Amino acid sequence: MISAVFPLASLVAALALLPASLAPSAGSDETSLEKARRGFETELNKSEFEKKDPVKPPEGLALVHYDSPTGRANAYITANPKKGQRHPAIVWLVGGFPAGGATDTAFEPGKYDNDQSAIQFRREGVITLYPSLRGTFGVPGVQESFLGEVDDVLAALDYLRTRDDVDPKRIFLGGHSTGGTLTLLVSEVQNEFRAIFSFGPVARMSDYGKSSVLFDPKNKAEDLVRSPIYHLDGIKTPTFVFEGAAGGNPDSLEEIRDANKNRALRCALIPGVNHFAYIAPLNHHLARAIAQDDGKKAFTLNPKDCVKSVGESIRAQLDARTIRVIASARSRGIELKRQQEFIFVTWSRDKSDLKSLQKSKEANGYDLKYLGSDGDPKDEWFLLEIRAKAKPSDLVRCCDLTADVQAWIRPHGVKISRIYIEDQE
Known about the structure:
Layout: E1 3-4, H1 8-17, H2 32-37, E2 41-42, E3 61-68, E4 71-78, E5 87-93, H3 119-123, E6 127-131, H4 149-161, E7 166-176, H5 178-187, E8 196-199, H6 220-224, E9 239-244, H7 250-259, E10 265-270, H8 279-292, H9 303-331, E11 340-348, H10 351-359, E12 367-376, E13 379-390, H11 395-409, E14 415-422
């Protein structure tokens, strides 16, 4: 049994409430992670727990409770899409710290280039569960930095299997960033998920740094039971790992990919996007795949198709943005058949990103102007204007221009804030 050294009361409660299904049966073929976890007692640097209660969910979601290893857990779940039927379901783990702390981020859609809500599953009729794990939002216990939280995710799976609106053979698991690391760890112990999707995990828990973990990151034994890189051979559930190549944890994905010899694990690095930009388009692709899955055959997914779908979706979003800019110019009476100046106002929190952009070879094809900083000293960002000429009536050329600018600036950590057309009279 995995437990924190403190507090003792929580340990006793956890032992009493641990579902029998979470412990391998006698004589079972334990994975390396299960062996490492068995009997291990963590020594946490501090006892952290979130005192806030879960917030009231919006329409279409409900707050539910179920038993977990430390006591009564909280989770948000989508309403039954069609009563009287069983549906596929997914447990979605949000990113950030504390791991598995489901807040309004879990169900309020964000911008398309950083939407962590996983709303794409709900739109496809996939029942979506957003659990809060130990030590978060009213769930008893203390946070353990990805140790006992593995058991909490399995408790969420057990809960979904009891619902009469969920097909117990079609329950999936997904998560982003810290949630992605946790999903990958869950895949390395015995579980009955149909497939697991890990977005932007780290290879080793210590990669998060001393300030983000609750144990001594130099303690190899502590890191071993929390680091996916050491237990890849134990994965039996189809597991897919993704990350953007332009920022986040691409080095971790490459390390995991290079170390992997397990056919149940597939990895894909998505070019031209950062840690956040691929979440929404990839979830849209996965949601459709889950909705089409009838559970009769082994679940299959081609990572190359996922990467292609993300690229097509992002390009479609850029094209739509360019078309809106041209439509705005037309409404202002700007002549669309003449050469006009397209202005891209870009920004970064780091001034050096803009300097790197200005020195790049691609900069020679554009007119660049540094606009200085904006915001207050505690929340400051820096702006760079990029100008290029094109005929707004040439829609293909204009869309390609926006895509080219995006592809150029994104690897430098720079984003487009605004696009507009300036009339050339």
